């Protein structure tokens, strides 16, 4: 498998192969090669349906039957490769050549790559395209960079301050307490404090304990399973109690949630119905539960258990078996390699649920969660000792 973006006779070309055929998209317009014009390029695929966008002009390739997962298992290369022999002959139109020019602001699956001298795994023959200490994003939030004898300085817009314009004026003298986050409110020229787990109050200065976690939206808990290395990942299990009056929301996501190839098991609400989705390798989704079970949003406590026995999935709601599904009778993938990470209620501040889950779930969870048990553990996990924000005492 491969996915390759290249410059061919002045046109941008996207080629990808998911295991059965090579799909090719090419822009209608040429790029400027005068060395002074920056171009915005977006390219990718959903399943085997591809898209290519150059400076706002889009080209799409409609999906056809075939493979829909990209399994590369290699490093990610920008501008060239360590050896041109590594390039698949179908990935480029002519003989492979390294790129000559400037590249900046690379975003892969909503995560920006840091093109510095220390962050990549390796590289060769790369220089500073800007030619000064200012670079591209030294000054944040539309600040203007100026070269100084001692280095550089940033001239900031009136709403921002700090050496690199990284701090809002509203939060420059905030009263937010221990480990909390200050979120500027530009319309009212004020700020809001988002409290870390174990703290509450307007300024997050009141210490709290809880056994029932209350999620109010823009909330999340990230739990790292200390026993992950000892788990038999072909036989996973999670159970919990929840209550809500909302019809949409992500209750739990077992998985790293970093890119589309990560395994996951998810429990949530969609259109007032409990929804279970599991990916053991190729984003195989368990169907929605039948509408007669759409009693999850009545502000009562409900007990849900999901059991994965290789590719067989059982779902219990309030002690009743409501799903028994074999999601892959061929047993191609049988283990839930979730990385030992469990998210409850949502994801980190700034990571939207609908984006991270690629539309499987639309919103953060609003409600309460308690009594979470992983696998066959004898003890409930202590949500208080995890990482998270905006979660409060639900007793």
Outline the structure in words.
It comes from Ceuthmochares aereus. One of its GO terms (biological process) is developmental growth. InterPro entries: ConA-like_dom_sf, EGF, Laminin_G, Neurexin-related_CASP. Keywords: Calcium, Disulfide bond, EGF-like domain, Glycoprotein, Repeat, Signal. The protein is mostly beta strands. The chain has three domains: 2-112, Jelly Rolls, CATH 2.60.120; 181-208, no CATH class; 213-393, Jelly Rolls (Sandwich). It contains one helix and 27 strands. It has one helix at residues 353-356, and strands at residues 2-8, 11-17, 22-26, 41-46, 49-54, 57-61, 107-108, 111-112, 144-148, 151-155, 160-161, 167-168, 181-185, 190-194, 199-200, 206-207, 213-224, 235-243, 249-254, 264-270, 273-279, 302-309, 312-317, 320-326, 341-344, 366-374, 387-393. The strands form eight sheets. Strands 17, 18, 19, 20, 21, 22, 23, 24, 25, 26 and 27 form an eleven-stranded antiparallel beta sheet that branches. It has a three-stranded antiparallel beta sheet with strand order 1-2-3, with no helix packed on it. The chain is globular, with a radius of gyration of 24 Å.
Task: Summarize the topology.
Blueprint: E1 2-8, E2 11-17, E3 22-26, E4 41-46, E5 49-54, E6 57-61, E7 107-108, E8 111-112, E9 144-148, E10 151-155, E11 160-161, E12 167-168, E13 181-185, E14 190-194, E15 199-200, E16 206-207, E17 213-224, E18 235-243, E19 249-254, E20 264-270, E21 273-279, E22 302-309, E23 312-317, E24 320-326, E25 341-344, H1 353-356, E26 366-374, E27 387-393
Antiparallel strand pairs: 1-2, 2-3, 4-5, 5-6, 7-8, 9-10, 11-12, 13-14, 15-16, 17-25, 17-26, 17-27, 18-22, 18-26, 19-20, 19-25, 20-21, 22-23, 23-24
Domain EGF-like: 130-166, 167-205
Protein name: EYS protein
Organism: Ceuthmochares aereus
